[in-house]
Structure to design on (228 residues):
């Protein structure tokens, strides 16, 4: 069974601080995706990483895919209250149907 | 912008009642997925359609659950004899059906089910 474990599960920081969220697995994934979800809404895709060692930047967000394609990280620089939300990593299951396996999520609260 | 839509957005029902949810995917998207999400957790896969064919079902999908996509467009998810443990957010997603590692899924806003 492919599992994705995220850490930390909860994070409460002050505006302007930096943070890193981790997504780890013992399985290899062909790609990993990061989503952000606000209360009462569906997840919104932030980025897809495909190549081992790949780094992608989206404004103040930096995403990295591990060399062995078993882990990924999301780093936010100078967090803002608008970054508050649930961050989810997800990978495609091994059945090749495209179904996504999600981590349990990291709830981020950025206080002004 | 016609994204994935779901109806209703909220449903409150009494234990034992049947409920049906609808999902309208992005037009021309071949794949449609249903997920369930409980509070503070990531979504869990329930079932998947390629056009009108239901190709995979999770073991989470008990015999009280049934999903259809009759014409390969919208889909319905029915839960019979609801139980309190069915209370969750039910999310629908659709995708073009490209090669798996690059096939982006777009999620709807979800239907929040509360079983009293």
């Amino acid at each position: 069974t492919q599992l994705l474990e995220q850490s930390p599960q909860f994070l409460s920081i002050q505006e302007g601080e930096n943070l890193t969220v981790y997504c780890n697995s013992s399985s290899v994934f062909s790609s990993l995706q990061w989503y952000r979800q606000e209360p009462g809404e569906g997840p919104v895709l932030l980025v897809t990483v495909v190549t081992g060692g790949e780094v992608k930047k989206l404004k103040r967000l930096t995403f990295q895919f591990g060399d062995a394609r078993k882990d990924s990280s999301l780093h936010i620089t100078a967090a803002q209250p608008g970054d508050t939300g649930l961050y989810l990593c997800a990978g495609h299951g091994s059945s090749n149907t495209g179904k996504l396996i999600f981590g349990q999520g990291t709830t981020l609260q950025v206080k002004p | 912008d016609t994204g994935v839509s779901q109806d209703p957005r909220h449903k409150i029902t009494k234990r034992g009642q049947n409920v049906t949810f609808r999902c309208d995917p992005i037009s021309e998207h071949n794949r449609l997925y249903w997920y369930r999400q409980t509070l503070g957790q990531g979504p869990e896969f329930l079932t998947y359609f390629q056009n009108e064919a239901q190709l995979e079902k999770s073991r989470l999908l008990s015999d009280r659950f049934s999903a259809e996509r009759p014409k390969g467009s919208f889909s319905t998810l029915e839960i019979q004899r609801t139980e309190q443990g069915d209370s969750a957010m039910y999310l629908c997603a659709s995708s073009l059906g490209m090669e798996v590692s690059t096939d982006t899924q777009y999620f709807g806003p979800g239907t929040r089910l509360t079983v009293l």
